[in-house]
Hints:
By secondary structure, the protein is α/β, with parallel strands linked by helices. The chain has six helices and eight strands.
Amino acid sequence: MNYPENYINQIIQGNCIEIIKEIPNNLIDLIFTDPPYVLDWKDPIKFKERKDIFHHKLETEKWDCGDINQLYLDIASEFNRVLKEGGSVLIFCRVENISYVKKIFIENGFFYKATIMWHKKNPAPQVRKKNYVSSYETLCWLVKGFDEDKIRYTFNFKTQNEMHNFIEMPICMGKERTDHPTQKPIKLIKHYLEIHSNENDLVLDPFIGVGTTALACKMDNRRYIGIEIDKRYCEMAEKRIKDYDSQLKLF
């Protein structure tokens, strides 16, 4: 292989666009990721059970700045290259960007399958009180090179009640919560990981943040490659994984 063997089950710090180029063609079974939404909130977001946060609380924290259209253009072709035929992409995005996500990924060889709505039961409050509380996010599901007669994609159907394209779940709170402002609940990630991948599959998350996808993979016996540009979040992800591994050794 043309990339370091230790990429498997590791969090790699760096620019995902550059690092993905080191991954061989047709290697990945599932890409499950939450790219930056390119937001710039000026007011603090207040929570009852944890400290207030700013989306850009540090002058140096620019991980969520830039051109969202260019970001999707940059990743779509590389996602197609590294993903196996019939492999899936699960990508969180703002509802305003769904049409563009669909367009650019379809132009790069993907077949759009569904949009899933996540209703947050305890969303961040509307600080300025000039709009509705933002209480949902969208998750787009796309498949590479879909042809139902020739290519099988992984889709592990659970019970009818678990397979709605709408899911209600609170945002991270309590011990699970870190100070990453867009951290997703591990229960949410595990649910869709189990539907769209199988044991021992290799899952890529090029915007892995504080490592939630990696933790879900470890819990469900999947392999992973995680990429994160922010050193601080890499360290937090590695600590969460280490803490999980240490807990397992107690049993």
